[in-house]
Amino acid sequence: MQLSKKWAALVAAIAMFFAAPVLAHDLPTDHETHRIAIQVSDNNPGTFQKALNNAANMSKFFLARGEDYEIEIVAYNAGLHLLRSDTSPVADRVKNFSQSVPNVTFSACGNTIKGMTKKDGKEPQLVENARVVPGGVIRLMELSDQGYFMIRP
């Protein structure tokens, strides 16, 4: 009986020795960059405000703690109006956002732009700090694969 207890303790110690590096790899470190993607797919001024408020609040939080972060707001479908300079009720706020809130980028869905161009007969004008990505949903999938935490306000 005494031998089996010692044997079990030895097996447990060996298992913990090999498991520790694996578990430590999965734990966040002090220098890890927080990555957040915010999805905007509805043409809703309240959603636009929530998305921008979420980004601003997270930015303040991480800056106060001295932690690195990246936030990307991805607009597609009707949510593209967030980034349109001609139809967005928050266009001025979006334009000034990059100057006042660091490490936040805006991505506009290229597929949605093509659809709106076809429907309206002209390409929608975007705020200057928006960049066009091939597809909004594809971009969200890419960000998810890169470890971004997804938020849909």
Automatic annotation (TrEMBL):
Residues 1-24 form the signal peptide. The keyword Signal applies. The keyword Signal applies. Keywords: Signal. This is DsrE family protein.
